[in-house]
Design brief:
By secondary structure, this protein is α+β, with helices and mostly antiparallel strands. It has 2 domains: 90 residues, Winged helix-like DNA-binding domain superfamily/Winged helix DNA-binding domain (Arc Repressor Mutant, subunit A); 135 residues, Elongation Factor Tu (Ef-tu), domain 3. The chain has 8 helices and 12 strands. The protein has a 6-stranded antiparallel barrel with strand order 4-5-11-10-9-12. It has a 3-stranded antiparallel sheet with strand order 1-3-2. It has a two-stranded antiparallel sheet with strand order 7-8. α1 crosses α3 and α2 crosses α3. The longest helix is centred in the middle third of the chain and has 20 residues. The chain is elongated, with a radius of gyration of 25 Å. It starts with 11 loop residues before the first helix and ends with a strand. The mean pLDDT is 87.
Length: 236
């Protein structure tokens, strides 16, 4: 990575300015903005904002054209590459943040649904393990839940198809499964292969996720309500 793309203290101001310019340009190719207006965006004086724009132009992250009292600013390919480098770095940081949940007693949904023939058959065939008849329920904070959902967006799930049970006269929804490791937060060396279930329909309260595994996780990890568990998504 070139020095200009490095996320270093002496380059923070340039990154910050480029970020805000990109936000204001959005899907447009360029933006008409004065130094005074840009200073308001950055919460800086007009003189400081002007110097920042000059620096961005000097390092090749932007191009500008002066028209009367305004300037037309465009992000260059070099600037776009710099933004991409920042994105990749932030993505790596976010993905490395621990996703932790607290063990909580469920409402019995996992035990009921895993045993249903059409679900159980698909779990065995598609996840390649015979699951315990039940799931481990974890309560996540808002931040941890958002991090987990954001991570899952970029992953291809193992899809468990929904189906209609003629005898019961009801329809059962589909389930997305994502391979993961789970471990006690205070003993991350002992990891158990499992799967996070992203369920289309659920009666759980906010930020509850269900973990499916072959062994009974409460026993093998010696878990009780309130214990903290780490979810580590497995790279595809």
């Amino acid at each position: 990575m070139s020095k200009e793309k490095e996320i270093t203290p002496d380059n923070y101001a340039n990154w910050f300015a480029l970020y805000h310019l990109s936000q204001n340009i959005g899907s447009q190719k360029a933006i008409h903005i004065s130094s005074v207006e840009f200073g308001k965006v950055l919460n800086l004086s007009q003189q400081t904002a002007s110097r920042r724009i000059n620096t961005l132009e000097e390092i090749g992250w932007i191009e500008r054209k002066i028209e009367a009292k305004e300037q037309i600013i465009r992000i260059t390919k070099k600037g776009a590459d710099a933004i991409l480098a920042m994105y990749k770095s932030l993505k790596q940081i976010l993905e490395s943040i621990l996703i932790v949940g607290e063990v909580t007693t469920g409402i019995g949904e996992g035990h009921y649904y895993v045993k249903i023939k059409n679900y159980l058959k698909q779990f065995q065939e598609k996840l390649r393990f015979i699951p315990f008849f039940g799931t481990l329920n974890l309560q996540l904070s808002d931040l941890n839940y958002e991090l987990l959902m954001e991570n899952l967006k970029n992953r291809i799930p193992v899809k468990i198809d929904g189906f209609k049970d003629v005898e019961e006269g009801r329809t059962f929804g589909s389930v997305d499964c994502h391979y993961c490791f789970v471990s006690r937060l205070d003993n991350q060396e002992k990891k158990v292969n499992a799967a996070v279930l992203k369920i289309k329909r659920t009666h759980h309260k906010k930020n509850i996720v269900e973990i499916l595994a072959e062994p009974y996780l409460r026993d093998i990890l010696n878990l009780h309500d309130g214990d903290r568990v780490r979810i580590e998504l497995i790279k595809e």
